[in-house]
Write a structure and sequence with these properties.
- This protein has 357 residues and is α/β, with parallel strands linked by helices.
- It is built from 17 helices and eleven strands.
- Helix content is 39%, strand content 14%.
- The strands form two sheets. The chain has an eight-stranded parallel barrel, surrounded by five helices. A three-stranded antiparallel sheet has the order 1-2-3.
């Protein structure tokens, strides 16, 4: 059975859909588009939620992770991309340089590069670096047995005795939350690991459809459970198509759950449109009420780009956001640049059903 956490409030997760802005591609004037964005709340400044609670140290921004009391860097290092450099030493150098540059949020996952990303990060976090970071990783197992096994494997690879944030990975099917919270499901293993001191906080991730996220939050509430953080795609395309920013982020903000944005550049796909720059993409995601924007850093150049985005970020006005989104509306309308939403190409668990059981 799932043990309830201390907070037993059951929030109401039913929300009206925000006004769509995709009509900007179909003849709205710039003024009308600005007004539509302002009315829908898309891309609103992090404002009272994040910016009031953020502080700057050196050239990095630090924000509150929901209600946890933790302060995390507004930019996070993506775990998948850190497994890309062919030279392991280069991967270790990027991780340590990121930490030295003020990035303390480390993203990873049990399945990235068949565990290679966790192994690489574990080596980078030696020599005192582990205590400088907030370490997150993810598991795919949906049964208690598989989840427990993957948790222990992640701890071993990362060379640590604790994971700061453990997340259920790829919650992309409507039935996934039922599996996680079922008797003998993954949440039992995660809570046991938390009680044993192996895990500090619990979250989930997904990239497919905001409705899956909302249902997962609803199922959690039925079990009197509140997640500490939730991860989802947040980028200038998302604002126009199956928008997590419109439908999920307001719920998380209301409930004090940490907002983890990922795919701010959609693995570079957004840049192919030439409508926006990489730094503009990162600034947009930082301007949302995100605790962390997780971005890939598979080279020192990509790391420098992320650090530059943090250094130069300033809260954007609604008109600035609307102008930025008006440049991406037409390209975003069909989801072609967010294939993680519209295809199975990014669904590792679809290719490996044995991982979830």
């Amino acid at each position: 059975m799932i043990d309830p956490l201390a907070n037993n409030d059951k929030p109401d997760f039913k929300r009206d859909r925000a006004t769509s802005t995709t009509d900007a591609a179909d003849g709205l004037t710039r003024r009308e588009f600005v007004q539509a964005v302002a009315a829908s709340g898309i891309g609103v400044s992090a404002g009272a939620h994040a910016l009031a609670a953020e502080r700057k140290a050196g050239e990095m921004i630090y924000r509150a992770l929901g209600r946890t009391g933790e302060k995390v860097s507004a930019i996070g290092l993506g775990g998948f991309h850190i497994g890309v450099p062919g030279n392991e030493d280069e991967g270790v150098r990027i991780i340590r340089s990121a930490i030295d540059g003020g990035i303390n949020f480390m993203d990873n996952c049990w399945d990235y590069h068949d565990g290679g990303s966790e192994v690489r990060m574990g080596k980078a976090l030696r020599d005192g670096y582990r205590d400088k970071v907030f370490l997150m990783t993810k598991i795919d197992g949906r049964t208690k047995e598989l989840a427990a096994k993957q948790i222990d494997e992640s701890l071993h690879r990362l060379q640590t005795d604790r994971i700061d944030l453990m997340q259920h990975h790829e919650v992309i099917r409507m039935e996934d939350p039922d599996r996680i919270f079922a008797e003998g499901g993954a949440m039992e293993a995660v809570l046991e690991a938390k009680n044993a001191g192996k895990i500090r906080y619990i979250g989930f991730t997904g990239h497919k459809d905001p409705l899956v996220h909302l249902r997962t939050l609803e199922i959690a509430a039925r079990h009197t459970f509140r997640f500490d953080a939730v991860q989802m795609p947040l980028n200038v395309m998302d604002a126009h198509f199956r928008s997590f920013a419109q439908q999920v982020v307001p719920v998380l903000v209301r409930e004090g759950i940490g907002v983890l944005g990922m795919k701010p550049l959609a693995s570079g796909a957004i840049l192919q449109t030439k409508a926006v720059t990489a730094v503009e993409c990162l600034h947009y995601a930082l301007n949302l009420p995100t605790s962390v924007v997780i971005t890939g850093m598979d080279s020192m150049e990509r790391l420098a780009q992320a650090l530059e985005a943090a250094r130069t970020f300033k809260p954007m006005s609604q008109e600035q956001v609307a102008t930025l989104l008006s440049r991406t509306a037409r390209a975003a309308a069909t989801g072609n640049y967010e294939r993680f939403k519209t295809s199975t190409a990014f669904d590792a668990t679809a290719r490996h059903p044995e991982w979830i059981g």
